[in-house]
Amino acid sequence: MPGSVIQGILVVVYKEDTIATTVYTTEEVTLQDGNDVTLKPLNIKGLRKFMSKMQEFAEVSEEDEGLDILLDAAAICLMKQRPELWDKHKNEGKGGYSEDAEDALDMPTVYRILDVCGGVKLNDPNLIAAAMESMEAQNGRTST
Fold first, then answer.
1. What does the buried/exposed string (b/e) look like for 40-52 if buried means 16 or more CB atoms within 10 Å of the residue's CB?
2. Per-residue pLDDT tens for 102-142?
3. Nearest-CA neighbor of 114 among 81, 78, 141?
4. Cα(55)–Cα(47) distance, rounded to whole angstroms?
5. Does the pLDDT of residue 89 top 90, yes or no?
6. How far is CA 41 from the centre of its chain?
């Protein structure tokens, strides 16, 4: 129509229904004490605490000390779901795994927790082979 004035413009915005996408996977694990936990990657705050603990693992000289660090790291990963696995009074107030953690965890489960929650694969055959080579190289250097 010539001479008509458009009074208004109708704007239609089409918005698809969106579904939230999770970018990580979760895993249900039954602990030795019979309780189930859901493993998922740590948030950044938890990951900082976890990585700080795992940094200590690189400096371990005794097997028991290494086991304590791995148990601490696993307890950090499970702290929100199973707070009784963490003893905040241990290690001069720094905290550490509790006696309950020793009853609830076994090494295959600890490895899985560290893998899913912290992204650390300690039972990877390639990693184990590299660690053995490194130890052999260090022993070779110290004996000469």
1. eebeeebbebbee
2. 999 999 999 999 999 999 988 777 766 776 676 677 666 54
3. 78
4. 12
5. no
6. 5
